[in-house]
Amino acid sequence: MFYETLKLAIQAIRLNALRSFLTLLGIVIGVSAVIAMVTIGNGTTAKVAADMAKLGSNMLFVRPGQFGPGRSAEVKPFNTRDLSALRNQLQGARAVAPASRKSVTVVLGSESRNVTIIGTDNAYFITQNWALQVGRLFLDGELRSGRAVCIIGETVRNELFGTSSIIGRRIRVDKISCEVIGLLEIKGETGFGTDQDDTVLMPLRTFHRRVSGNTDIGRFYVSAREGIETTSLQADIERLLRNRRNIAAGKKDDFSVRDMKQIAEARTTTTTTLTILLGAVAGVSLLVGGIGIMNIMLVSVTERTHEIGIRLAIGAQEGQVLMQFLVEAVVLSLIGGVVGVLLGLGLAAASAAAMNIPFLPDPKIVLISFGFSALVGIVFGYFPARRAARMNPIEALRHD
Questions:
Q1: HEC sequence for 224-249
Q2: What does the alpha-carbon distance between residue 156 and residue 219 come to, in Å, rounded to a whole number?
Q3: Tens digit of pLDDT for each residue in 104-113?
Q4: Residue 245 CA to its chain's centroid (Å)
Q5: How do 93-108 and 59-64 pair as beta strands?
Q6: What is the secondary structure of 173-206 as a DSSP string?
Q7: Which of the four pLDDT bands, split at 50, 70 and 90, describes residue 70?
Q8: Is the dihedral angle over the CA atoms 259, 261, 264, 269 positive or is it negative?
Q9: Residue 184 φ then ψ, to 5°
Q10: Which residues contact 301 (CB under 8 A, 6 or more apart)?
């Protein structure tokens, strides 16, 4: 019996192919939009988490001044004495790395590029979890004497050297000739869209003497020891710096300490919330598609009133008529659901490739979207089907 009802439903859909296509289009758009939005959102969240992990999940970022609006324009910079104090007095720190930055022009022959140069030491590689592809780190003698040596990023290598060897070559960094001793491992962009590979590292003393002309340190990166909570280490840093910078009790700090773990969690939470919001907005189109099915099915019932009257007159039960139209609506929804799933996954895969994010489809969302499309067919198909089943056979036979 059900098989015959299914055959009648498919036959009715094929007889009105264009109308059927337009009917299920709303379901297709709704299902594909939900799947595509959620999949893209999952990929974006995963990429943000991975990018933030590159910066170090157990790392603290310390800088003069306050973040956000209301920060003072004139702030007292850090110096090498602050660096020594942090290294000597922070028991929970695995490494403390200084970092002074300046945007300069790097030149090799006829090629030049504006890059960020960072004055630091070997602790920087620990805090940033960064290794070298080739070459070596700074020697102790180079760090103490301020010798003009540098380690470059992959983007700088590509732009200046191409595929040729770089170790031992000399480039002009700002106004000094600098020997290249190493090439950084590729890291790519951060979650903030900054190319980490477009950089040049040199000893802090070299930077102070020959680039900046002062002993200011722009920021510190502090990596926590294994088993040490970053919140505890953050409190130690704040107490130490408040004491060194003579900040009285009750006064606001003139420096900032940020936990990269908290930043990563905040950004991940934001992208997850946006994913849910986009999925919910896309889900509205499923309801619109359901309303479209109901409207078309009502039209179909009106057009087939005479046929319904004949079926009822020759002995068809109300339940059989109701099932016929209900199955037709559900079949339309399921076809739309299948096409929507395939289209949604295809759009998500193409978007992931274009945006350079992971393709992470969620099987639960796929099943929920498909199941919801069937539910839409049942709910919105029931009312037209009930109307058909409750027709008076005599009145239906009189209908032109």
A1: ECCCCCHHHHHHHHHHHHHHHCCCCC
A2: 23
A3: 999 998 888 8
A4: 39
A5: unpaired
A6: ETTEEEEEEEEEPP--B-TTS-BTTSEEEEEHHH
A7: very low
A8: negative
A9: -70, 150
A10: 308, 325, 384, 385, 387, 388
